[in-house]
Amino acid sequence: MIVTVTPSILRGNIQAPASKSSMQRACAAALILNGTSVISNPGHSNDDRAAMDIIQKLGAVIKFEDDKLVVQSSGVKPVAESIDCGESGLSIRMFTPIVALSKSTITVTGSGSLGSRPMDFFDQVLPQVGVTVRSAGGRLPLVIEGPIIPQDISIDGSLSSQFLTGLLMAYASAGADGKTISVNGLKSKPYIDLTLKVMESFGLPVPVNHNYESFQFGETVVRNGPEAVHYTVEGDWSGAAFLLVAGAVAGPITVHGLDVFSTQADKAVLQALMSCGAAISVQPEKIEIGPMPLKAFHFNATDCPDLFPPLVALAAFCEGTTVIEGAGRLTHKESNRALTLQEEFGKMGVEISLQDDLMIIRGTKIVKGADVHSHHDHRIAMACAVAGLRAEGEMTIGDADAINKSYPDFYQHLSELGATIVKKVNA
Prior knowledge:
Blueprint (H helix, E strand, L loop, with lengths): L1 E5 L5 E4 L4 H13 L1 E7 L5 H12 L3 E5 L2 E7 L7 E3 L4 H11 L5 E5 L10 H6 L6 E3 L7 E4 L7 E4 L5 H13 L5 E5 L4 H13 L6 E3 L3 E3 L12 E4 L4 H14 L2 E4 L12 H7 L3 E4 L3 E5 L7 E3 L7 H8 L5 E5 L11 H11 L3 E5 L2 E5 L8 E3 L4 H11 L6 E4 L11 H7 L3 E5 L3
Parallel strand pairs: 2-15, 3-14, 6-7, 10-11, 18-19, 22-23
Antiparallel strand pairs: 1-23, 1-24, 3-5, 4-5, 7-9, 8-9, 11-13, 12-13, 15-17, 16-17, 19-21, 20-21
Helix pairs in contact: 1-2, 1-3, 1-6, 3-5, 5-6, 7-9, 7-11, 9-10, 9-11
């Protein structure tokens, strides 16, 4: 699909999308829980749909009742020989250790950029806990044969916290009494906070967090009673970051449905918006944001690398040179986001340079409309669309339907706020 964004003024109120980070973790927790889970505000992005498909193939029964997702599960009892994680990096990293709870041999596959992302973490770690792993040289597909037997292990947390999320979930289900997972160089710590919060909400055993350096499981407490677990998926700070930046450059708008006390890492977008001088009012029920003269800012995105695309769109309209730390985290995303942002925003006349772990963006008074491409990356498509709201001329985005991975309603939401957006299906 090709989308053309015409420079527009936004006004109005919008509800933030459901968090796929929260939704996918809830699906995993509901799977390993012995009982019924009722999930309110369920997401419907491609990644969310992948997670729902996975838990069904691993033995859960799901149905929708009054816009709520009801999950009935008695643990991991596969009814298929393989699971397909689609293009979801979280699903493949989180569900692979959970698959290993079963004695069955299960093939784990994915599509898109997942085929090139390194998965040798599992080759190195899972055999330490009794799991047989076969991979294509550290790439997909993975063939997993459990069951997992929790041990005291040490892992590298520098590539992604999502591997640790899967291990914590699997250990919680496997009865890891007294066992400890030690972690070196953990990145994206707030996402581990989210994982632990979800586990607690579902009544799963929650390990003691020793300063993110080790996670120690105590005595497993068996959940009693037939009562269903009720969980509400949070509003998504990752997707809402694009709405908030859109409001800062082309608003004013009001965004509802975000928890200002959330553990989601991308809540840090508020720091950047305040630093650059946006007109912002943060209230418990809503966030009001509008344009002001914007100035360059310095921001550390090491623990929230998904904020790079919206922050680049923001920096493009800031006077001066913005510096964002953590660019090394962008290599293994849906695209190599550092190079992709440099290329696509370069077409708009925005100069981006990369220096070690830094991304340096030189704001410009005139952001040019251009023919850009998402590189099949949902966040690149959204960043280009936001830039198009205040560009000089139309912004035409190729493979714009990449947004379906995380925020399928994005263009619709911008349109509801007043943006002029034209969609064209590829011939």
